[in-house]
Amino acid sequence: MKNIISIVIFGVTLLTFCTITSASSPYAKIDVYYNGQLYPGITTPKPVLAIGEPFTLRFDVTSYQKCYLSVKLTTIDTQDLEIISGPCKEINEYVGQNIGQNETISYEWEVVPTDNWAGGSIPLDFVYQFDELGAGGDIIAKGRFTAAYITVTEEYYNGESVKVSEPEASDRPATASGFMVPITVCMLLLAGVCRRRI
């Protein structure tokens, strides 16, 4: 009985981590581009930027069914980043439109960090929601993920190029680094339970 409980806990842990780190679902696929470079799967760009140094984020959203799509950028405080150009002019402001089945819509923002987080790091999240068409349509799917984890230096931008942590070139699919810790813990617990029975 204890083995069954351990296996169930292990399975739930795996499913939890899989849904948190995915930008793809049965309803849609979202590709993230930082300064024109695709960041596949769960890879997150981690740039080191000066105060006022511009960067671009683009999201190619492909819906697998006809619906209404709402998206926004959000962060800890609306004063942490400033939108220079994009579909909306403020952090935490939704923009939405109808999207057809298998249609792809691109959303691109040019953003700069402010001195609000100088000397620190801040996540910039992408929030999305798919609603059924028509007045009062039900929510089909919604979610959010960190699109960029920005470290802001205490220096001001002077026109030099952006430093970005490059994704490692590999033939293996991307894996979540935090994914291995729960697996290791569960395997150790399972080994301990099995060892006590022997």
Please characterize this protein's 3D structure:
The chain is of the alpha+beta class. The chain has one domain: Immunoglobulins (Immunoglobulin-like, Sandwich). 19% of the residues lie in helices and 41% in strands. It contains two helices and ten strands. It has helices spanning 2-20, 180-197, and strands at residues 28-34, 37-39, 48-51, 55-63, 67-74, 81-85, 95-99, 104-113, 120-131, 139-156. The strands form two sheets. It has a five-stranded antiparallel beta sheet, with no helix packed on it. A five-stranded mixed beta sheet has the order 3-10-9-5-7, with no helix packed on it. Strand 1 (28-34) and strand 2 form a beta hairpin. Helix 1 packs antiparallel against helix 2 (180-197). The chain is flat and about 65 Å long. The relative contact order is 0.23.
Instruction: Write out the strand line-up for the largest beta sheet, numbering strands in chain order.
Output: 2-1-4-8-6
Percentage of helical residues? Answer: 10-25%
Q: How much of the residues is beta strand, in percent?
A: 35-45%
Work out the number of β strands.
10
Number of domains: 1
CATH fold-level label: Immunoglobulin-like
Average pLDDT taken over every residue: 80
How large is the radius of gyration?
20 Å
Order of helices and strands: HEEEEEEEEEEH
Shape: flat
- Look at the helices and sheets and give the structural class: alpha+beta
Please count the helical segments. Answer: 2
Question: So, CATH architecture?
Answer: Sandwich
CATH homolog superfamily: Immunoglobulins
Question: Main beta sheet, described?
Answer: 5 strands, antiparallel
CATH class, named: Mainly Beta
Low-confidence stretches: 10-22, 162-179
Distance from N terminus to C terminus (CA atoms, Å) equals: 16 Å
